[in-house]
Specification:
The protein is an alpha/beta fold. About 35% of the residues lie in helices and about 25% in strands. It starts with a strand and ends with a strand.
């Protein structure tokens, strides 16, 4: 029986990941560490496991791996502590709030010889994976450009506290799609030009950003990242990529697999998602890596490279010029 520990329920994805673990045979939630005792005790009761108020005691237990869903600025300390305790790690995105922290996390995990995987569930979307297969088969020809969006709702709380989150919508909603573009093209971003601001909410961090990117081989891309969706919107938001190739262009909306549900009330129309469970497939992939000792499909390096682009967008906006990577 593999035992997976949960480190913090600060990020809402923790609930989904824990529910996924509960459905897997030969896997159990071996404990929960959370520095919010009320939240931690409730989650331990809900998921029928042990609550730990002390991180050292939690990491000294017989868990095999951890899933980290803390505030972004705490990823570094938790990852390093888990690695030194010989636990394999799945860490929520973004990997960290600074490039220096991300690099140190990668180094420590390599030295400890533990798996360090970043939680990018969009990679496990069925239509995203189907398009990857078509690209690899040459159906689109050479990729010339990308157009991408990731527009959702303001998560509020610590997400709008820059000290804890590292930024706003841009750091939250850029890393996913940069990861997909890197995965599709096998190329790194070399130039970032961005405009970042708060347009939809009266908050101290950005809630939107438009950026243009250039890749090492000349591919160009645009990305629209925002918290622009209001609570009554039929869906949480959208995650869209359009791949322009020399043979054909294909557009995929990760959220498009849904039923339209009409009812009375303030939110009369809802989109009920009926596609594959990306979080579940991400968790299964992580468990398989831990079991087999294989290299994770989404590495710390992947997390670092997408973080670099998000941070460069902020720098581009601050300086009013293109940033070279």
């Amino acid at each position: 029986m593999m035992k997976i520990g949960m480190m913090s329920f600060a990020h809402m994805h923790a609930y989904s990941y824990a529910n996924c673990l509960m459905t897997l045979p030969d896997v159990e939630i071996g404990g929960i560490f959370d520095d919010d005792p009320d939240r931690g005790k409730k989650m331990a009761a809900d998921f029928k496991t042990t609550y730990y108020s002390d991180q050292t005691d939690f990491l000294a237990s017989d868990i095999d791996a951890v899933i980290i869903c803390s505030e972004n600025n705490r990823h570094k300390d938790m990852v390093i502590a888990a690695a030194k305790a010989n636990k394999h790690i799945l860490c929520e995105k973004p990997i960290a709030t600074t490039v220096a922290d991300a690099k140190e996390m990668i180094r420590v995990c390599q030295e400890a010889d533990v798996i360090f995987q970043i939680a990018y569930p969009v990679r496990f979307s069925a239509p995203i994976r189907a398009l990857k297969t078509r690209i690899d088969a040459g159906e689109l020809g050479d990729i010339v450009a990308f157009r991408t969006t990731n527009r959702g709702q303001n998560p509020d709380g610590w997400f709008i506290d820059a000290a804890q989150s590292g930024g706003g919508a841009v750091i939250d909603h850029t890393v996913h799609m940069v990861d997909i573009m890197r995965w599709y093209s096998g190329q790194e971003v070399t130039e970032v030009d961005a405009v970042v601001d708060s347009y939809f909410h009266n908050i101290a961090v950005d809630d939107a950003g438009i950026m243009t990117l250039e890749f090492a081989n000349g591919i160009i891309a645009s990305h629209d990242a925002s918290w622009s969706r209001f609570p009554e919107y039929p869906a949480w938001g959208d995650v869209v990529i359009e791949v322009i190739g020399t043979k054909q262009t294909v557009k995929v909306n990760v959220s498009n697999e849904h039923l339209r549900h009409f009812t009375r009330g303030e939110k009369s129309l809802s989109h009920v998602f009926v596609g594959n469970n990306k979080d579940f497939d991400l968790i299964v992939d992580f468990i398989d890596c831990v079991t087999s000792g294989a290299r994770p499909s989404i590495t710390g390096f992947d997390g670092l490279k997408s973080l670099e682009v998000a941070l460069a967008a902020y720098e581009s906006n601050r300086l009013g010029k293109k940033i070279q990577l």
